[in-house]
Amino acid sequence: MALSGAQRRRLDARLDALGHGGNATRLVAHLRTPAGAADLARLVDAVAVHTSELFRDEVQLSAFREHVLSPRVQRSRTPLRVWSAGCAAGEEVATLLLLMAQEGADPASRVLGTDISEQVLTRARELSFPADALRRVPEAARARYFEPKGRRHALVASLRAQAEFRRHNLMEAPYPEASGGGGFDIIFCRNVLIYFTPDAFQRTVRDLTGRLAPGGVLVLSAAEPLLQVPPELRLLPSEHAFFYVREDATPVEPARPKRDSGRFAAIATPKPEPAPPPVPDEAAMAQADWLFSCVLDGASTGVPDEQSERDLRRCLDLDPDHVAARYLLGLLLEQCGQPGAALEAYRRALRAVDSGRARPVPFFLNPPRLRVACARAVERLEADAAR
């Protein structure tokens, strides 16, 4: 994990409380013993992030239901095997169970929830939530699928029976396997990878991909786009979200926007772009959004980093406050070994969000989540520079 300042302070406080005279070797030896297991769990809880709620990021979930879940249920009535990696207190597991029930998925379908913290899993196994965690759940669904349990609301027993919880650290092998073998049909890992170092991010994506069944779908948050897509995956874009599909034995090249057709023909030429107007007009913003989608799509088809960087910079020439493109440029520069330039891109993206200039764009319709991702990246790179 790329720890924030607050996480470092919490971790330091708990390390100080453990003592061991500041001797790291002796402390690590203690944490590896059965007697040190409880201390290790407390250290993990000091840095783990467990913020969530049901139906988080409704726009992405709606796209997931329309373009992934519903077609899959209609195509095959076999039980679904779903994994929520980094499930926190079970909010995402309950959301997935609810969506599957509404789509008529086989009642034998299962959702596995994993998290690094045993403490939070104890709460997750109850699948009961305070009222504020259900604020995004439609009233009809709340009445049908939840029942009062004291001051909380518990998922109905028939859906709770479809859930399983297990402790797992995404940095550790082996990864969980789907019941019956063959891989998971769907893996959700949202708002987890933004807390990882770039190397850990890429390694985790590769490991998650290895646990997908052929045709299985990986769902990341909008703030976690892949600029290095494993060759086994292809991008499945929709109007408001993107997903990654594991190819079967006969991969099909995904359709890509043509760079030399229609009103966007001028963008593909090597001639210098004209200076953008102070306030982008609708045509400029549409061209910027198109270029941005090309970069996302190109990541899964082997477009060189240099081409992606050129497209992102053209996008920003057209719309300087295209925060999603600015954030993506930061990611690209960081993975290309340019931390100073990446930090400046993240800072500018953060300033645009904070000033209210950022506009929602396709795939990135959640500016608050994008702000968190930019802020985390700035803090991480500033800490690296200081060290």
Describe this structure in words.
- The protein is an alpha/beta fold and 387 residues long.
- The protein has three domains: 5-47, no CATH class; 58-246, Rossmann fold (3-Layer(aba) Sandwich); 262-386, Alpha Horseshoe (Serine Threonine Protein Phosphatase 5, Tetratricopeptide repeat).
- 46% of the residues lie in helices and 13% in strands.
- It is built from 14 helices and ten strands.
- It has helices at 5-18, 24-31, 37-47, 58-75, 91-103, 118-124, 139-145, 157-160, 198-210, 282-299, 305-318, 323-335, 339-355, 367-386; strands at 81-85, 110-115, 128-129, 146-149, 152-155, 163-167, 184-188, 212-219, 233-237, 242-246.
- The protein has a seven-stranded mixed β-sheet, with helices on both faces. It has a three-stranded antiparallel β-sheet with strand order 3-5-4.
- Helix 10 runs antiparallel to helix 11 (305-318) and helix 13 (339-355) runs antiparallel to helix 14 (367-386).
- The protein is globular and about 55 Å long.
- The chain starts with a helix and ends with a helix.
Which key terms come to mind for this protein?
alpha/beta; Rossmann fold; Serine Threonine Protein Phosphatase 5, Tetratricopeptide repeat; 3 domains; three-stranded antiparallel sheet; 14 helices; 46% helix
